[in-house]
UniProtKB/TrEMBL annotation:
InterPro entries: UCP028291. This is DUF2218 domain-containing protein. Pfam families: DUF2218 (PF09981). Keywords: Plasmid. It comes from the Bacteria.
Length: 108
C-alpha cells in the first residue's frame, strides 16, 4: 500500500533550496535534479530502517514556492520523511524560518 502527501512551501528561493536538498542527499541516495525539478529515492533500508518499500520525494521549484511530494510505503514512513524534509529545509532556509508546511495527505 502506498501513502502520499504534497506540500507547497512558500518561499522565493525554491530553486536554491531544491538544489541544496538534492546535493545534500546525493552523497548517499539516488538523486536526479535540475534547477527546476528534482527527485530523491529513499531506500527501504536507509540508515538501518526496515520500511516495506522505497520512498520517493519529488520537488518542483516555483517563483514563489517549492512544491514537494512524498510517496512512501506506509503511514509511519510518510510521517518520518515529512519530518526529515522539514528539518533539512528549515536548516537550509534558516533566514526564512519558520517556513510553513501545509501538508495535504492523499486518500489511501
Amino acid at each position: 500500500m502506498r501513502h502520499a502527501s504534497s506540500v507547497r512551501v512558500p518561499t522565493p528561493n525554491g530553486s536554491r533550496y531544491l538544489q541544496q536538498l538534492c546535493k545534500h542527499w546525493a552523497h548517499n541516495l539516488t538523486v536526479e535534479y535540475t534547477p527546476e525539478a528534482g527527485s530523491v529515492v529513499f531506500p527501504h533500508n536507509a540508515r538501518g530502517a526496515d520500511w516495506p518499500g522505497d520512498a520517493t520525494l519529488t520537488l518542483q521549484a516555483r517563483p514563489d514556492a517549492l512544491d514537494c511530494r512524498l510517496d512512501t510505503s506506509s503511514a509511519e514512513h510518510l510521517a518520518a520523511l515529512k519530518g526529515a524534509l522539514e528539518r533539512h529545509l528549515d536548516r537550509f532556509a534558516f533566514r526564512e524560518v519558520p517556513l510553513s508546511y501545509p501538508w495535504q495527505d492523499e486518500p489511501v
